[in-house]
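[Structure tokenization] protein backbone as discrete codes

[Encoding] learned vocabulary of local backbone shapes

[Begin record] amino acids and matching fold tokens:

___
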Amino acid sequence: MDLAALRNQSSNIASNVTAATDQLATDLAKVTVEPRGYSHKQDSLDPLTSNYFLSDSPLPKLNLEPWDGNKSEGGQPQSAPPKAISSIPRHVVDAMLKHYCETYHPQYPSIGEADLYRARDEVYQNPQVGEFDIFVIAITVAISSNTLMHVDEKRAATTTSGLWATAVSHLNEIGMTSSWDRLQALQLLTHYGFLNPQDVNVSHCAAAATRLAFHLGLHREVPPLTQTKVDTSILNTRRRMFWNAYAIDAATRTVRRQPFKWSRPEITAKFPDSESLATQTHCAHVWSLREIECDITLGLEYPMLDLEFPDVAPSPEHWYVRTHTRLEQWYQSVRRNATLTAKIEFHKLLFQIQVLWLNRPSPRYPVPIHEMQRKAGIAAMALIREVSMFDRPGKMFMLWHAAHCVIEAGTYLLSSVLVGIESHPDDRIHVFGEDVAVVLRHIKTIPSLVWKIARRWPRIKQHASALEAICNSTMDILQRWSDGQDGWQSKVSMAQEELGQLTLSRSTYIQEEA
């Protein structure tokens, strides 16, 4: 063999080795960033059909007798039987998926649009379609069908129930071998539970999704060298799945005033390339609000954690001003952009509930100053007004959030009225700066909204009944006080005691500055 041939052979061997090494590195990178299977610690995870996940979502905290569904007037809504997705005309499913992608997906991107339509194709074209694909189409169409409530509530509820039954019938094996499928399913279940809290425990599903995302390492950005070996779509899917899990878990904990504060240095995952605060994208703005909400909950309800999380603030005054500024900046950034205003449909409600929590009594501010009390009262009425505005055209879809917001705002408004009329006896026209007639209208709206929620979430009926009683008492007291009649003084302390028993906490009451 001559020298040239030997060199050529050596060159070919080197090229083959280089190609094999590159392929091995690429395959290893894909395995690293695209999670499949479970570790030994996850082998004993509950199936997604377990009662731990598929049970009632947490109720708003009121001191009520244990609920008995058998004694409830009308009982639980009748469940519809499962319906084969392939039996639904494809153009109908396409219309519902289009609505889902335009309305819900921008805020809750639990599954990629391309993956969603790939699953649609599998359902209609593949006789051996997988369980996960059927589940995905059934639950996303069920989420989308909730928007038909304003057209025909009974028909929409029956359609949603049937699609939900279909989704559950294909849920048992999902996620037992694929962690990726389980993560997406948990996020979709949480989203569905926000609209139908009687079917899904949103707190359990959201928390499980976040734990799984951290376990899979999605909170860490893939090293630069590995990124060069992987398609950017996989990297962006990792980022999207982490931040959506983080956001929905943060949302459920914030509503229940629970701490949620993962150490920021541990989170290096970027937003997906499609999401940016600078380019006014929807997900990025929702995710940024979740971080503000978490900081508010932690700073107000758990000030003892300041040492563990020093970024909360060096002083209560500085923290309050800084947090109000961050919240106001977020709100104005949405209001200035017509697309964001349309897509983040509940931005006013999201803003006002945080204003209420920032200014009402809390462990950090047990006795808010007068201006904080005024802001909280106005925010409480704004919340009731916002939910009522969505209810009138039949758009009160997010039942779980609506129930918690209305009851939180309602109980605060009642307590502020009962204290306000004692504190300002000379002005019989206004309460915390608002016209008495306006306040009366808002109080009257509280139980009617909760009763409407109870039509689809029966366990809220006790809340509606209890609130109706205390609202009627408070309206009677306020009207007597405003008209200059006698006898209201003796009823105030009784109403305050009743409200205190109902809310389990005297912190609900407004206290005057010392």
Remarks:
- The first helix runs from residue 3 to 33.
